[in-house]
Specification:
The protein is α/β, with parallel strands linked by helices. It has 4 helices and 15 strands. The protein has 2 domains: about 80 residues, 2-Layer Sandwich (Transcription Regulator spoIIAA); about 140 residues, Pectate Lyase C-like. Belongs to the MinC family.
Length: about 230
C-alpha cells in the first residue's frame, strides 16, 4: 500500500488499515499524523475500532488507543475482532449502553472491551487484559479470564474469572448462566449448585457482602453497579 496507515469509517466506528511490512514505530508516527489531521472530522464520537492488514499485540493496540484519546475527542468503547460477523448498529449501541457508567477513559485496558466471535470448547482458554464480549458459548472445560467484565452472548457453562487483577467491581453477564465456576476479583462463587438454568432472562454475577450474587438483568438491576469493560 502507498500509505503506511489508512483510517476508514464504517457504520460502527473506524478501521485502521496498516501496512503489514512496516516497522511498528513507523506505523505509530503515521497514525499520529492521520489522527492530528482528522481531529475536527472525527469529532467527539463514541466508536468501536478495528485493525486490518497486520496482527497487533495487546500492547501495540494499547499504544494506538492511548494516542486516539490524547490526540482526538473520540471515545473508544470496544476493539472489534476483524473476524467477527457483521453486527447491527443497534447491537453495538446496546453494548455501549452497558458501559455508559464506566470509569473515566484513558486508563486502558479496562475501559475497552474486545469482541471474540466463536464458541470456546473444552480445553480452550481466553485470557484478556481487557473486558471481553464473547459472541458464542463457553462450554464446560473452557476458561475465560479478563481484567474487566466478561459478557457471554450465549451459554456460559465453563470457568469465568472477571476482574482477575483484583478488581471487585467487575461482573460476569451471560444469556444462560450455568458456569462450572465463577470468580470475580479474589472471590469465588461458593456453590455451583446455585447456578440455575435461565434461557429466557440474561443474568449478572457480581460481588455483594463478600460473596458472589447472581441476579436477573431486568428493570434497574444494573444501575447500582460501576460497570467496567
Amino acid at each position: 500500500m502507498n500509505e503506511l496507515v489508512l483510517i476508514k469509517g464504517n457504520r460502527f466506528g473506524l478501521n485502521f488499515i496498516m501496512d503489514q511490512d512496516a516497522d511498528f514505530e513507523a506505523l505509530l508516527k503515521a497514525t499520529k499524523v492521520k489522527l492530528t489531521e482528522g481531529k475536527k472530522f472525527f469529532g467527539n464520537a463514541k466508536v468501536s475500532i478495528g485493525f486490518e492488514g497486520r496482527s497487533l499485540s495487546d500492547t501495540q493496540q494499547q499504544s494506538i488507543i492511548h494516542m486516539i484519546h490524547e490526540l482526538t475527542d473520540m471515545e473508544v468503547f470496544c476493539v472489534v475482532d476483524e473476524n467477527m460477523p457483521i453486527v447491527s448498529p443497534e447491537s453495538l449501541k446496546a453494548m455501549a449502553a452497558l458501559t455508559k457508567e464506566t470509569v473515566p477513559m484513558g486508563h486502558f485496558p479496562k475501559e475497552v472491551a474486545v469482541f471474540h466471535q466463536g464458541t470456546l470448547r473444552s480445553g480452550q482458554e481466553l485470557n484478556m487484559d481487557t473486558g471481553i464480549v464473547i459472541l458464542g458459548d463457553v462450554n464446560p472445560g473452557a476458561k475465560v479470564t479478563a481484567t474487566g467484565n466478561i459478557v457471554v452472548l450465549g451459554n456460559l457453562k465453563g470457568y469465568a474469572h472477571a476482574g482477575c487483577d483484583g478488581e471487585r467491581q467487575a461482573c460476569v453477564i451471560a444469556l444462560n448462566m450455568q458456569p462450572t465456576q465463577i470468580r470475580i476479583g479474589d472471590v469465588i462463587a461458593r456453590s455451583p449448585d446455585k447456578f440455575e438454568e435461565s434461557r429466557t432472562v440474561a443474568q449478572i454475577a457480581f460481588i455483594e457482602d463478600e460473596r458472589i450474587v447472581i441476579d436477573h438483568i431486568e428493570g434497574n438491576t444494573h444501575k447500582d453497579f460501576k460497570i467496567l469493560n
